[in-house]
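in:
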C-alpha cells in the first residue's frame, strides 16, 4: 500500500511540470472556446477573463497541493491518473465556487465548469501519455539474443500479471516468457497477457521436454507464489529438479510476497450481511454530514496547529484493517517533530504541545478519521485498529470486522485498561456485533468524551475470562463504578 512521508522527513519543496502549468492556464480559455467563443467579446469579456484567472490560480494551487510534479518521470499509472483527476475536480470546484461568489456566474454558462474539468484532465493526461510514448520511441528496443533466456511461469495470478506488465512496460526482450502453468484446470487453454496457460505445475518436466524438441530451451521456472512454510515440501521445486531446470520465486525478484488471507476463528460470528449494509450506509451518510457540520471547528484546529506546531497538520500511521488489509489512519498532529532543526533526536516526553494536549483531551485529534470512515477503511464502531507490530498472532478475530473510531473497549476503560483486556472486549464485540449494540456504543461514547475513561472491573474480567457480557451491568457509561480515570497520553496511540 502507499504510505505518506513522515513529518520529520517531509520536504516543503513543491515541483511543477511544464505540461501541468500549460494545462491549468489553457483549460479555462479552451473550455470557453468550446462552449461559446463569443464569451470573449463585450460585454462578457471582463467576466470571462476573471473566470480564466480564477481557474488558473485554482489549478496551480491544486497541482501543487496534490504533488503532481513530484515524480521524476511521466509514467501514466493508475495512481497517477487518480491523482490528476482528483486535482482537476478540486480545481474546478474551487473555480466554480469562487466565480459564483463573485457574480453568481451571471455572464458565464453554468456548464462551463464541467467542460473545464474535461479539458483539464485531457490536457494533463494527454501530455503525460505523449511524453511516455516519445520516451519509448527514443529508448528503442535493445536486442541481445546471446543473453536471451526462456522462462516458464507458475501461477496465473495478479502477481504474475504485474510482472508481465512490467516486462512489457520496459521492453524487456531478454526474458522470454514461453508459457504459464497453474493449478486451476478451468484456466487451461486460456491466456494471461497473450501468454498461454497450458497445464498444471506437475507437468513441468513434460513441458520442458516438448519445448526443447521445438528448439526452445527453458532455462528457468519462475514461481509466482509465496515460498512454502517450514516443514512443508516444495513440490514445485521437486518438479523443477526432475526437469533439470533452475527455479526461483518471483517474490525474491521483486522484493515482496503475496499477503496470506487472514484466517477466521471457528467460533467467530461477525455481522450479518444486512447489518453490514445498514452500518455502511450509516457510516457514509453520517461521516459526510458530520464533516460538513464541523468544518468551521476543523478550520480553527488547523490554524491552531499551524501556529503551535507548523506544517504538516495531519499525522498518519499504518494500521491493520478488515481481514488484515493495511490502511493509513489519520489524526490531527499533536506532537512536535521527533528531530530538531539540527537533526538531533528529541525524546517523546519533550515533544508535547499545549494545543495538542488540548486536542487529545477532547479527542478532537480523531476528527480526520471521518475520512477513513467515508472511504470505507473504518467504521464509526468497531475494534480500534492496531499497528502491525501490535496485532496478536494468536487471535485474528478482531480482523473479521472493520476497525472503528470508537468501540466496546473504549467505553469500558479505554486508555486505562491493558492490551489483553482490550483484546477480550474487542473479541466479545465481534462475536456479538449488531446495529443496536453499535447505537448503544455511540451513545455511551459521548459520555466517555465528556467524563473521561472509566474502568469497569467486573465487565472487563468477565469478558476476558468467560467471553460473555450478558448481564445487568453492561451499561458502563451510566451504571458503572469508576476505579480509575485516564490521563491523555503524549505518544502515538
Amino acid at each position: 500500500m502507499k504510505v505518506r512521508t513522515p513529518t520529520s522527513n517531509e520536504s516543503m519543496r513543491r515541483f511543477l511540470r511544464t505540461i501541468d502549468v500549460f494545462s491549468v492556464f489553457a483549460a479555462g480559455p479552451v473550455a470557453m472556446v468550446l462552449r461559446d467563443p463569443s464569451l470573449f467579446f463585450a460585454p462578457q469579456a471582463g467576466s470571462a477573463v476573471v473566470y480564466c484567472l480564477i481557474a488558473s490560480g485554482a489549478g496551480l494551487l491544486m497541482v501543487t497541493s496534490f504533488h503532481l510534479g513530484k515524480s521524476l518521470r511521466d509514467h501514466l499509472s493508475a495512481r497517477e491518473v487518480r491523482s490528476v483527476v482528483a486535482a482537476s475536480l478540486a480545481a474546478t470546484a474551487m473555480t466554480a465556487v469562487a466565480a459564483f461568489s463573485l457574480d453568481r456566474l451571471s455572464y458565464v454558462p453554468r456548464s462551463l465548469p464541467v467542460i473545464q474539468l474535461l479539458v483539464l484532465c485531457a490536457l494533463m493526461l494527454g501530455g503525460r501519455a505523449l511524453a511516455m510514448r516519445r520516451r519509448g520511441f527514443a529508448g528503442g528496443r535493445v536486442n541481445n539474443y546471446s543473453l536471451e533466456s526462456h522462462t516458464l511461469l507458475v501461477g496465473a495470478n495478479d502477481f504474475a500479471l504485474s510482472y508481465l506488465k512490467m516486462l512489457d512496460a520496459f521492453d524487456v526482450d531478454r526474458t522470454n516468457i514461453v508459457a504459464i502453468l497453474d493449478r486451476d484446470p478451468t484456466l487451461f487453454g486460456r491466456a494471461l497477457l497473450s501468454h498461454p496457460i497450458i497445464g498444471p505445475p506437475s507437468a513441468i518436466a513434460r513441458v520442458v521436454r516438448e519445448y526443447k524438441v521445438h528448439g526452445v530451451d527453458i532455462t528457468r521456472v519462475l514461481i509466482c507464489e509465496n515460498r512454502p512454510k517450514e516443514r512443508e515440501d516444495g513440490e514445485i521445486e521437486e518438479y523443477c529438479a526432475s526437469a533439470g531446470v533452475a527455479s526461483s520465486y518471483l517474490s525474491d525478484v521483486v522484493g515482496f510476497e503475496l499477503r496470506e488471507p487472514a484466517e477466521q476463528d471457528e467460533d467467530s460470528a461477525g455481522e450479518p450481511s444486512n447489518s453490514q449494509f445498514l452500518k455502511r450506509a450509516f457510516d457514509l451518510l453520517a461521516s459526510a454530514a458530520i464533516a460538513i457540520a464541523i468544518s468551521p471547528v476543523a478550520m480553527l484546529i488547523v490554524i491552531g496547529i499551524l501556529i503551535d506546531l507548523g506544517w504538516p497538520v495531519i499525522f498518519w500511521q499504518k494500521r491493520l484493517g478488515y481481514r488484515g488489509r493495511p490502511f493509513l489512519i489519520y489524526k490531527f498532529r499533536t506532537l512536535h517533530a521527533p528531530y530538531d532543526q539540527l537533526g538531533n533526536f528529541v525524546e517523546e516526553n519533550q515533544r508535547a504541545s499545549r494545543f495538542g494536549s488540548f486536542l487529545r483531551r477532547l479527542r478532537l485529534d480523531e476528527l480526520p478519521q471521518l475520512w477513513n470512515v467515508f472511504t470505507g477503511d473504518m467504521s464509526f464502531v468497531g475494534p480500534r485498529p492496531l499497528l502491525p507490530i501490535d496485532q496478536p498472532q494468536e487471535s485474528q478475530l478482531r480482523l473479521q470486522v472493520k476497525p472503528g473510531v470508537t468501540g466496546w473497549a473504549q467505553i469500558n476503560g479505554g486508555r486505562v485498561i491493558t492490551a489483553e483486556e482490550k483484546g477480550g472486549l474487542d473479541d466479545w464485540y465481534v462475536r456479538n456485533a449488531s446495529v443496536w449494540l453499535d447505537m448503544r456504543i455511540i451513545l455511551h461514547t459521548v459520555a466517555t468524551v465528556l467524563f473521561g475513561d472509566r474502568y469497569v472491573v467486573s465487565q472487563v474480567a468477565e469478558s476476558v475470562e468467560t467471553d460473555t457480557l450478558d448481564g445487568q451491568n453492561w451499561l458502563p457509561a451510566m451504571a458503572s463504578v469508576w476505579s480509575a480515570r485516564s490521563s491523555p497520553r503524549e505518544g502515538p496511540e
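note: Residues 139-147, 264-269, 455-493 have pLDDT under 50 and may be disordered.
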